[in-house]
Amino acid sequence: MRFDRLIKVLLPHDEKFYSFFEESSNNLVKGAELLKTLPAASLSEREALVNKMKDFEHEGDSITHKIFAELNSTFVTPFDREDIHVLASALDDVMDYMDGSAGRFALYKVQECPKDMAKLIDTLHSSIVELNRGVSLLRDLRQSEEIQKVLQKVNEYENEADSIFENAIAALFEHEKDPIKVIKLKEIYVGLETATDKCEDAANVLEAILIKHA
Amino acid sequence: MRFDRLIKVLLPHDEKFYSFFEESSNNLVKGAELLKTLPAASLSEREALVNKMKDFEHEGDSITHKIFAELNSTFVTPFDREDIHVLASALDDVMDYMDGSAGRFALYKVQECPKDMAKLIDTLHSSIVELNRGVSLLRDLRQSEEIQKVLQKVNEYENEADSIFENAIAALFEHEKDPIKVIKLKEIYVGLETATDKCEDAANVLEAILIKHA
Amino acid sequence: MRFDRLIKVLLPHDEKFYSFFEESSNNLVKGAELLKTLPAASLSEREALVNKMKDFEHEGDSITHKIFAELNSTFVTPFDREDIHVLASALDDVMDYMDGSAGRFALYKVQECPKDMAKLIDTLHSSIVELNRGVSLLRDLRQSEEIQKVLQKVNEYENEADSIFENAIAALFEHEKDPIKVIKLKEIYVGLETATDKCEDAANVLEAILIKHA
What we know:
homotrimer; Methane Monooxygenase Hydroxylase, Chain G, domain 1; globular
């Protein structure tokens, strides 16, 4: 039996952490795919979508809870405890901000999704797909080049999101004369942009884990 | 002398941490009780209430400072250092958001407290009373069922607060035509809702401590 | 060879951490000095200033990245790992909020910088200069009285900033009738005030380090 296999038998907790993180990031992908359908959905379809997103959010909460419970009851962990904590929290935050943005989109009865908002959602989706790939690579840190590519991609999407966000907010203030609409749309933009920030936070933990295990 | 007593003599620091956390959560109860009087207070009474809240906030800062100083100068702590840090910070945050909300309520010269805001304050108060009970249970972690009840209650109050908050914001955008008032009231609602979030953060630390010492 | 010198030879990493933190806080001083020129700059000069600030922000990101990489690849650190992490993050946050505020100032095409905003920038600048002094004192923690003075000063500046902020927001709501302008200016004020909060967070880490090494 190879030593690393032996370790795995002795420390079955590791497997759980990998699985939980994959569950969490797969759940994010499902949320992001749903979010992408929101701009084109009719007002009557929105409620079902928002409820579905709320289900994903509850599912995410439950996964995060499992990770924390496992962390608190496990003595030996595959990565630093702090990294597990921060990664789980960042993934949870991505879902919270997606859910919050979708919820506000419906709650505020936004008539039409601005083009910039649909673009921002696309970028967020791309970032989450990439992040999901990065999380699945945690099981084999020898694939460090692949992980590096993920980190770079998530970084690029974050910069793209920043730039879409800034243009969108500038245009909003320039063209939208109804201050109530400005408040509503700005809040949704901030939520989506924060979700991409949290993807980057999650990717930063992947990088930290990679460096420590290099 | 029983061994756990002996430990206590050798480690008098433990006692300090329990006392400081109780001071902190008792202080929150005082703040929440004061906050409950704000909706019915006349404009002329408000200033005194807000000043009193500021006193509680300073008191909270001083307790938090004592906890951090004790933590930094103590080698052996009754719980994980990280948990002590996060719990102290979360309790401090609850007070900061209560104080900020009360301060804005006066600063923004809100003429009348909306009913939803009074309801949100009631829910926050209930959550803080429950949290205070949970903190006092830290001294005897064998009462794990009682602590579990606290956690469940704080969770329920947080969900209740979310729902009050969402309805309130929807109603605000629906009925309030003055955008300046929307901005002001929304900010106070966000502050109060964030205070209940921070109660949940604090309760999550209690849960983590419970799991580790199970 | 004195023992502490020997340690330094054996642990050249320490030197790097001190240098990186000094780089980071020097970079903040440069940013704050630039920020001070913004209120008096003409609309046409602003773009160059904002671009320069963005350069400082990228520089700050790169320093923070070096600190985290060093932290993750170093086993023995001059202070607690957690303190290094929180200090680096707080310094990074100060820059992010300065950059964000400057960017919004230009993006929102604010015609004239309100006097309170210029005052808040001055206070932020003073706090950063003091913080920079505190960071340079980390190399010799025996100068604890000097560090204490820094902490007190940063605290005073934070209180000053709070008070300027509250007055500014009250005045904004009182006198500005255009809700769009209220939204824009309020957001910039919040960014600047948050930057001073982050200075205090950084100073709190200095205090924690001081207590632990007393």
